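Predicting holo structure, S-adenosylmethionine bound.
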Amino acid sequence: MSITAEPTQIDTDKLMSFVFRAVDEVGATLNAALVVMGDKLGYYRDLAEHGPSTPAQLAERTQTAEPYAREWLNAQAAGGYVTYDPGTKRYTLPAEHALAMTDPDSPAFLPGFFQIALGTVHDTQHIVDAARSGAGFGWHEHETDVHVGCERFFRPSYHANLIESWIPALDGVREKLERGALVADVGCGHGASTILLAEAFPNSTFVGSDYHAESITTAQDRAAEAGVHNVRFEVASAQEFRGIPDGTGYDLVAMFDCLHDMGDPVGAARHVREVIADDGTWMIVEPMAGDRVEDNLNPVGRAYYGFSTLLCTPSSLSQDVGLALGTQAGPARIRDVTSAGGFTQFRSVAETPFNRVIEARP
Ligand SMILES: C[S@@+](CC[C@H](N)C(=O)[O-])C[C@H]1O[C@@H](n2cnc3c(N)ncnc32)[C@H](O)[C@@H]1O
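Done. Tokens:
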């Protein structure tokens, strides 16, 4: 007996609504490159400074070719990033957009988010190959836009929250840092968090570490530029960092947006337990996420699942163990990692739209 499938009824309105949504997303995909272009060429900064402008004015002031400035402005106007006045034929970057596109200290600063996204997307073919073979693709294998974009994306949030609200949310930590404490910032990348902490707590000693040697060189440069002297950096994995000669007795160990990138987060947790003082604190800053997939099906979760697929999970898979926690691991899985490492206390102490801050104690 043969069974004939019923022909599927296509709802044309639903189909066209999906197609037009996808058209908008193709525009958004290209806009990632346009934002990075505008950031690198100084278009946003120029428009913020000079107000309503023609393409010729923007091109002249930024010393770029007018056809590029013209098409870029039209794309930005179609996407709602700038406004266009047909009467004067001038383009304006609204004040709120100017803040988000040009002020690197504002928590709303966006170019870093686009820069890390575009840098990540650039390596898509490597991830396609890795998905077929099951291999990983390491953080260090990505292009510089990923590393610099990461720093520029996360730093504004650390600048806005770390000293004012995250450190005070940890039990007794601010007082220790004010008196003089020993602190490790593990997986520190370009050292944005390490330097903010070192500037705020001059009596304390900070050791930033990361397995990526180029990031550590940049972190050293950033510390020299900032003129901070109570910080040093070393190339080391989270499972092995020492920082100081005997490498134990840390009052605070911090991990900013990196635990889920590690191949062996449980091994890292065990090592943190070995080097931390018995009354010490492990501060874990992770991407904002709930425990269940359905908790994360929102715009922030969408961006983070995208990064998880293309950047963070391949990073974990490129290392020993390759646990692949995922960028949206959620607090329950992070708690499992800290418990397996020998930590008995676990508390979620602060949240922003992008991050959750966790306190783990021995
Ligand atoms: C998303 S970036 C965050 C960097 C920095 N903490 C920040 O917030 O700007 C993740 C960092 O984890 C580092 N990383 C990944 N696996 C690591 C490991 N096993 N040990 C040490 N660092 C690691 C990467 O090199 C990268 O710098």
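Residues 139, 150-151, 154, 187-189, 192-193, 210-212, 215, 237-238, 256-258, 261-262, 315, 319 surround S-adenosylmethionine (CB under 6 Å).
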